[in-house]
Each structure stands twice: as structure tokens, then as C-alpha cells.
Amino acid sequence: xxxxxxxxxxxxSLSVGAQRALILAAEHPDRVAGAVFVCPAxxxxxxxxxxxxxxxxxxxxxxxEAWPNSWPKGKFTGWVGDYRAFLEFFFSxxxxxxxxxxxxEDCIGWGLETTAERLIATEIGNGMSEATARxxxxxxxxxxxVIQGTADAITGPGRGxxxxxxxxxxxxxxxxxxxxxxxxxxxxxxxxxGDFALPARxxxxxxxxxxxxxxxxxxxxxxxxxxHAQRDVAIASELRKLHPDLEIDWLAQHxxxxxxxxxxxxxxxxxxxxxxxxxxxxxxxAGHDLHAFxxxxxxxxxxxxNFMVFHDLAREDHYxxxxxxxxxxxxxxxxxxxxxxxxxxxxxxxFVGWLPMPDxxxxxxxxxxxxxxxxxxQIARFPRVRDxxxxxxxxxxxxxxxxxxxxxxxxxxxxxxYDFAGYVTGFDPGQLEDREALGYR
Length: 441
Known about the structure:
Blueprint: E1 9-14, H1 17-27, E2 32-38, H2 76-81, H3 83-94, H4 101-111, H5 116-124, H6 130-139, E3 144-149, H7 157-167, E4 170-174, H8 181-184, H9 186-197, E5 216-221, H10 228-242, E6 247-251, H11 256-262, E7 266-267, H12 277-283, H13 292-297, H14 300-316, E8 321-325, H15 328-336, E9 344-349, H16 361-381, E10 388-391, H17 410-417, E11 419-420
Parallel strand pairs: 1-2, 2-3, 3-4, 5-6, 5-8, 6-7, 8-9, 9-10, 10-11
Helix pairs in contact: 1-6, 3-4, 10-11, 14-15
């Protein structure tokens, strides 16, 4: 805080970071405006019967049959004996929600940047007694929020509950969330942090009755697909023919905005807050080679940030319809947080499902199938999120493959869950008389 000239701040801690946060809030109350503890690892007696944990420095018996699949594997001897296996086990416990391959892989990679011996040294240095923790908690005077996953397999949910009680703070339990809800349920955690850290919003000074509001649509156009901008402008033009009184705002970024501005469309000012998706794709395209699945998989932070921009806009402005042209962040996070849907949602795309590249081997085949399974489960659980799903193309354009082992055929599933629009080009090829000038024979 000194280094960044931050005199006073709301602090947010995760896991064992709660111990540092307790010290800071108790010892320097003038510097801490509020403290948020996410799944705190504090040495407080749990009010629940959490699963047993094991002393890390205890030597494992050679015949310990539980070693490969349970917490004894977390002992120091296990760390040194097979460090990668420990990391794989630990992060499988941290991210124990289904379809958590990406955060687990990231954390294993970060863990491999150090050694078991160095990690053991940090663990030995983490000691804080229960008496110390309770003394610090009693001295905290700032507002406190504890965010705790009920399925936390690292510390158990009881320790978060005990810290909320010891500090007199508020407790929010996230049912079914594990030890990393800021990663696996980031929209909810972001909203909790915002509500805690920021003062209450000033209510609008003017309100308009629903029946006298103009018809309004918010159009979210992806910047990373070929032809999106041209077809989206064509669709908006056709919508206005059908509904002349329709107002359309666009949430978009370059290069889509260049097309929109040239056509006189209204780009919402919130678009300036969007993280650059096309820049990410360019960075992934070194050597003119783009691995689309992995590139999209590695842009989850960008997609989350852009969903939060959309969320804030949709909360402040009233729209009758959200239109998403491959707005992946909107579709994914609405299915993960269906209570945030406050308008009709029309979704369309020109591809459905991920398929592995041959050089990706069995691991990539597993990953693409897992991503497809998550999407199928989302649609089955919350079919109401998409009021209309449209495939831009025809049935024969869809590959005949299956989504993965034990999953349905992509073509059959898409036919059941989508309407088909044919291909939307945004122009009439019949009007292009001089084909040679365009480079076509």
C-alpha cells in the first residue's frame, strides 16, 4: 500500500491470505476501509464437522492405501516424492466443481514454477495459532464480508463461518462452490465485491412507465468472427423494416465499430470499456497459425471482463431485447447466472461445438468433449435463457461428428435446439456484376 501511495483501501484475501489480512486490519485499522475474506484458511475451530485434515509434516506409512486419492497425499513426504502428483491432487480439490479443467491446469503450471522444498518452507512459515487468530479478529473494526463455498474441500466451509462469527462480519455461503469461487463463480463474487466496496448507487431521478418506453434492443456483436459486422448491420436494417420504431444500441469494439460508425449506427459509450478480444486473437496468431479452441479457452478473463461491462450496462438501461452474434461471454455467463437475465435474449452463431485437432491427441479430445458437455448441460438446465437460438447457415453445413464420447451428434442436437436462417452475407451477390474486378473467375 505504501509503494502504491494507497492510504486506505478495501482489502480482499483468499485462503491463507486471510491470515495476512487479519494482521493488516487489526494492526492498521486506519488503512483498511473493509475486509473481504474468500474461503479463509484460518486456524479457528469449525462449527461444522469438516472432513479430517492431516498434519503436513507427518511421515506417511509405506502401506498407506489412501495416499493416491485422499488428503494424506498432501503431507510433506508426498510433496517431495511426486511434486506434480501433489499439485494435480491439490488443485483437483481446490476446483472440485465440474468442468474446471482450465483453472486446474493454470494452477498446476504456476506450481511447477517453484519446487516442493520451497513450497514446504512457505507452509512451515504460515503458522498462526487459534488464540492469535481470535485475538486479531476481535480487534478488527472495519466492515467484514466472508464469502465461503459450501463445497470447499481445502479448508472446509466451517472455518469461513467461524471467522465471520469472530469478526462480527457478514457471511455469504455459495452453495456448491469450492475453494476458488472467485474463479469458478466470478460473476457472483464480482457482484458481492462491488456491493461491499462501493457506496449504494444513487437511484435515478426519472423513471418511465413500461408501456410508454420505446422499443429498444442492445446488439452485442463479436469482433473476432469473419463477416460479423456486415451481417449484423444487415440484420439490424431488416429489423427496422419490420419494427420502424425500434431503437438499437450496439455494444461492440474494433473492427466492428468501424463498420457501425460508417453506417451511422449508435455505438453505446460503454463499448469503450470492453477488453480487446481481437487483440487477443491477433496475439494468438503468430506465424499465421491460429488454434481457435485454445485461443478462446485462454481468453476467459477477457470474456468475463466484457460480461461485467454488459451486466453494468443492462442494469442501468432498460432493453426489451438482447441480441448476441457469437457473444460467447453473454451466453455462457447468463447460463451460469440465469437470475441476471432481465430481457429477451436472441443468440446466433455459425458453428456449434468444439472438435479436437489431430495433433492435440487424447488430452485435447477430452477437453473439447468436456467443454461441449458443459454447454449441453447449461442448455438442458436453463432452456429459458435463450429465447431464440439461430444457426446462421443450413443443416447440411453442420459437421456429422459427435460432441464427444457418450454425447449426442452435433447435427442432431443443433437441429433440435436451433432455428436455421441460411447464410447471412449482408449483400446481394447478384448485384455484383463485375466479378473479375473482385478477383473471382
